[in-house]
Amino acid sequence: MGEGQKWKQGGRSSIAVTQITELKTKLDSTERILSTLEKERPPSQTASDRPQEPQNGKEKEKESLNEELHELKKENKLLKETNALVNRKKEHYECEIKRLNKVQIYEEDFKRERSDRERLNQEKEELQQINQISQSQLNKLKSKIKAFQMEKEKLEKQFQQMSFPTSNCGLGSPLRDLCRPTGPGAVQDLQKHPPDYQWYAPDQLPPDVQHKANGFSSEKKVNQ
Length: 224
Known about the structure:
Pfam families: CC2-LZ
Radius of gyration: 62 Å
Protein name: TNFAIP3-interacting protein 3
Organism: Hipposideros armiger (Great Himalayan leaf-nosed bat)
Distance between the termini: 119 Å
Number of strands: 0
Structural class: mainly alpha
Strand content: under 5%
Keywords: Coiled coil
Largest sheet: none
Shape: rod-shaped
InterPro entries: CC2-LZ_dom
């Protein structure tokens, strides 16, 4: 129910209350006048009690008072009927106002419920979007992990193909000499700090070892 309807119903109720108050005031005033006229009205006289001389002025005044009293009684009756009608209208307006207030409460509850439902739907959509983004990022991360694992396996296979057995220490005697410790203190030092050998293919030897290997090969050719 809008504010205009509320003011309209409140205005009707106020008008009804004002009318009732005015009618009650008028009714009370009429009843007081009737009571006064009844007291001032002379008692009925018999023909024998009436004076012989006519009193035209008093008779006319009496008739006028009787007519006024009769009109006031009619007006009083009409006012009572009008008052009863206004009271019924007042009760009707009060019931209507109560009903409209309940309708307004129901309407406000419905609007509040609809607003909450729309808010929850919006939050649900936002959570679904966040879930989709998280799922997409998770799938990308899984793909990267899988690619890293495949690259790791590939590198391990290449390393295994390039490595030599640890029992074979080199190519020819000069390389074997490189694997043996020299001097009496070198044995103890080797026991404390064993060398960390990395084995290479002939074309992938360290530069110093490859140089010695090339020198050994040249000397062998000269001796031949």
